[in-house]
Specification:
The complex is a heterodimer of chains A (304) and B (579). Chain A has 304 residues and is an all-alpha fold. Helix content of chain A is 67%, strand content 0%. Chain A has a single domain (23-62, 89-295), classed as Orthogonal Bundle (MetI-like fold), CATH 1.10.3720.10.
């Protein structure tokens, strides 16, 4: 047929020399072309290296040492200065970034996975199932996390591990994602391609995983990146309530909290963790942008 | 042959002659280029036409031929990545290159536009009267009461019954046809000189189309406006315009008086369009003559005539040299037509003289019998929605009753009522709408059954009931003796491989995030019949519906509507094998 000879459609360039790219290769290609996302990914990798590998190369860890002079501004021995108690700020920053990244990513992945599955299921079934599932979501949204934490904190002494902190934050943040995803799915399920899948004999589970979630990828990724920032802030708040990561262990949020009164008098205590936190949040947002565009096959001619 | 002897100097003198009083819209060498990642896309190339007061011009073409983009460029409604060159003058005033604020004074006042979809072109939160009055007030400071009076007048004019009541109603309370008439009333609000109607009847039923076209004609009579009617439907053009311009690949390839173009087309493409039109009076064994292939992609235009790759008449010259839009003079030479001449019949084809009295079948039939696949593909094009059992989907068993024997699908007294629920928390059932009431039918092997009716009469609901996609209220559906209505969704699932559906909307029925190969293979995977063979099967199916098997890794949005529909057919098809 003449169709075969005429390279009819607009994106003939996607098939180069008869070699077909797989879906994954195309997604990766689109992501690589997204400049802000690529730069952000590079920066985030550097930060991760700094946080996880850095401590092996740096003289000081995040504990108090007798050899460290208190309250010294940045110098050759201590590039980011020292605290009043005698911590090396660079050592603290490495450890803090490490703990914060661990908590933030665990919360984001866990909360997003649970939230989107829950929301998509509720949205797909609708009716009573939806009503019941969303009331449960409402309960998690109504009870404030910090009040719960304060209540639990009374009975837990001496802080907790980072994963316990992550679990608790995730338990209270999946609900928002569930709501977002349910909203998207409610409109998606009315689309004919969902009906087509049903007509093909697909089970509800298949439809949710293969059709609904991929099509809701945009809002899900946006929610997941926001969740990273939220988790960092919540963790800082929890440390403040003497729950979560406690001294001598340290997180970025805690460092900022401790140095909040010293921002003008001893800026080296406040700005390094603050700036690092902002950079982490920014890079994650850009990466999320890039991911969203890369996953959307329709993004071939946009921008500019 | 002196086709190309018509030189540029000719063209200049030609342009000078256009200065006349009654010209309301003059488009000259209008080109639109979109910037994209794949390089510039030339959506419109050097389009020129002249529209006189009260005249109606039809612009016909396939989707993607640039017909809508041309009018959007005139209205200044294109997105920012569009670059518009050339000129478009409304009553002598240049509109290309105006800022948005400047062109707003022209829009609505002198030139008005009617869009395709009446469901989305009205704002659902305002009353109809308010929206018409708003259009009046946008250009005239007459006060709200006066504007409302005018709205009433306009509604009467477009033939809406009980206009006083309608004025206070919201768009959702009106039918599609009525809404489109309201849109026409809004377009007329300020007595524009030009009305551009972009596919005004495409979204509507045939029966309603006539009413809307009548309203459009009334609007023309009343305001004396010139009309540009953009459509892909030759039937709509035939009775409603004076002149036609056929667009292909962003250019006007043929233009002239309606009768001339319809009865003596000078360009193979126009002839092909006429041949793809189903006719009620034709023999039902007579197949349509499709134009094979697809329109050229805008970023890879062929160097010569853009239609050449699909043209059965194409010769070497067609592939090398782009033909100009010229008319035939008495001696059969191709010369520039006088732009001011409404009778001129021009065509962009080197060999328009040879076309003579050919019929579509003469020209395109030779190619279309290339193989049996072709025929099936054609049939599918006209079938909108089919919910039949496998052998019947095949479409080749044209003579009904040929199968005889036992019915495979038996439907008795099928009824579907949709509940109307009260507002508020309890959502009690307060009544019901009967969507399908008491349908009975039998379907035998190799039989094709057509369900015909206006929208809202229950065709689609019936189709979905047969497949148990929605649950019946009462009645019975038997498939090979099995009572489908009594099965649970889980029991129904394995049967779905034998009962398939091709959906109406080729845009909504394919998952935009899946590649075409995945879409077609999905039923296989769902029923765990893939067994590693699914890739080969997908390629076979693509071939079968006339698509390039190598295009499996593409996404639905990269295909045209017709191609997508064929993907839908391929998906429905696979399950029928081994049955």
């Amino acid at each position: 047929m003449s169709e075969n000879s005429a390279p009819g459609t607009a994106v003939a360039a996607e098939v180069v020399g008869g070699v077909q790219r797989t879906q994954l290769q195309m997604i990766i290609r689109r992501f690589l072309r997204h400049r802000p996302a690529m730069i952000s990914l590079g920066v985030l990798v550097l930060i991760a290296l700094f946080a996880f590998v850095g401590p092996y190369f740096w003289t000081w860890d995040h504990f108090v040492h007798r050899e460290i002079p208190p309250s010294v501004p940045p110098s050759a021995d201590h590039p980011l200065g020292t605290t009043t108690a005698g911590h090396d700020v660079l050592g603290q920053l490495m450890r803090g970034a490490q703990q914060t990244l661990k908590v933030a990513f665990t919360v984001s992945l866990l909360g997003t996975a649970v939230g989107s599955l829950w929301g998509a299921t509720a949205g797909y079934y609708g009716g009573r199932v939806d009503a019941l599932m969303m009331r449960i979501v409402d309960v998690f949204m109504i009870v404030p996390l910090l009040v719960m934490v304060a209540a639990i904190a009374g009975s837990v002494r001496g802080g907790t591990t980072w994963w316990a902190v992550a679990l608790i934050i995730a338990a209270f943040s999946w609900a928002q994602i569930a709501r977002v995803v349910r909203g998207v799915v409610l409109s998606l399920r009315e689309q004919e391609f969902v009906e087509a899948a049903r007509a093909a004999g697909a089970s509800p589970g298949w439809i949710i995983v293969r059709h609904l979630l991929p099509n809701a990828a945009g809002p899900i990724i946006v929610a997941a990146t926001l969740l990273v920032a939220v988790a960092i802030l919540l963790e800082a708040g929890m440390s403040f309530l003497s729950f979560g990561i406690q001294l001598p262990d340290i997180s970025l949020g805690q460092m900022i909290g401790d140095a909040r009164t010293a921002a003008s008098t001893r800026p080296w205590l406040f700005y390094p963790p603050g700036v690092l936190l902002v950079i982490v949040c920014l890079t994650i947002n850009f990466i999320g942008d890039g991911l969203r565009d890369a996953l959307d096959p329709r993004q071939t001619m946009e921008r500019r | 042959m002196t086709a190309t002897d018509a030189t540029n100097s000719d063209k200049e003198t030609r342009e000078a002659t256009v200065e006349r009083d009654d010209v309301v819209l003059e488009v000259n060498d209008l080109s639109v280029t979109f910037q994209s990642d794949d390089g510039p896309l030339q959506a419109v190339r050097e389009v020129s036409y002249v529209l006189r007061a009260g005249e109606a011009l039809g612009i016909v073409g396939e989707s993607g031929s640039g017909k809508s983009v041309t009018s959007m460029a005139i209205m200044g409604l294109l997105p920012r990545n569009a670059r518009v060159t050339g000129s478009a003058r409304v009553l002598g005033q240049e509109v290309v290159g105006l800022t948005d604020a400047q062109i707003s004074k022209v829009r609505g006042e002198r030139i008005a536009m009617i869009f395709q979809d009446p469901l989305t072109s009205l704002n659902p939160v305002y009353t109809v009267g308010y929206q018409i009055a708003e259009a009046v007030l946008a250009h005239r400071n007459v006060g709200r009461a006066k504007a409302m009076d005018r709205a009433l007048e306009l509604l009467e004019l477009v033939g809406i019954p009980h206009p006083e009541q309608r004025l206070k109603q919201y768009p959702h309370e009106l039918s599609g046809g009525m809404r489109q008439r309201v849109v026409i009333a809004i377009a007329m609000a300020n007595d524009p000189d030009v009305i551009i109607a972009d596919e005004p009847t495409t979204a509507l039923d045939v029966t309603v189309q006539a009413q809307v076209l009548e309203a459009l004609n009334a609007a023309r009579r009343e305001t004396g406006a010139a009309l540009v009617l953009i459509t892909h439907d030759l039937g709509v053009v035939a009775g409603n315009v004076d002149r036609v311009a056929v667009m292909y690949g962003g250019r006007i390839v043929e233009s002239g008086p309606v009768e001339e173009v319809f009865y003596r087309p000078r360009m193979p493409y126009a002839l092909g369009l006429l041949g793809s039109l189903p006719r009620l009076d034709a023999d039902r064994r007579e197949r349509l003559t499709p134009i094979m292939g697809t329109p050229p992609s805008l970023n890879a235009m062929p160097p010569g005539c853009s239609f050449a790759p699909r043209c059965p008449m194409a010769r070497t010259r067609c592939h090398e040299e782009e033909p100009l839009l010229l008319k035939l003079d008495e001696r059969g030479d191709r010369v520039w037509a006088d732009v001011g001449d409404p009778e001129a019949h021009s065509a962009a084809c080197h060999f328009s003289a040879e076309l003579g009295e050919s019929t579509p079948a003469d020209l395109f039939r030779a190619e279309s019998v290339a193989g049996p696949d072709t025929e099936v593909g054609t049939e599918r094009g006209s079938a909108r929605e089919e919910a039949t059992d496998p052998p019947a989907v095949d479409g080749t068993g044209a003579d009904s009753g040929a199968g005889g024997g036992e019915p495979i699908l038996t439907v008795t007294d099928l009824v579907k009522n949709f509940p109307i629920r009260s507002k508020g928390l309890l959502r009690r059932k307060i009544g019901e709408v009967q969507a399908v009431s008491g349908i009975s039918l039998d379907l035998r092997e190799k039989e094709t059954l057509a369900l015909v009716g206006e929208s809202g009469c229950g065709k689609s609901t019936t189709a979905r009931l047969l497949l148990q996609l929605i649950r019946r209220t009462s009645g019975e559906v038997h498939y090979r003796g099995q009572p489908l209505h009594a099965l649970t969704p889980r029991q129904m699932r394995p049967l779905r491989r034998d009962l398939q559906i091709v959906f109406q909307d080729p845009f909504a029925s394919l998952d935009p995030r899946m590649t075409v190969a995945d879409i077609i293979a999905e039923p296989l995977r769902v029923h765990r019949e893939g067994n590693g063979k699914s890739r080969r099967r997908v390629a076979e199916l693509l071939e079968l519906v006339g698509l390039n098997p190598e295009h499996g890794s593409r996404y639905p949005h990269e295909f045209s509507g017709g191609q997508r529909q064929r993907i839908g057919v391929a998906r429905a098809w696979r399950s029928t094998r081994g049955c």
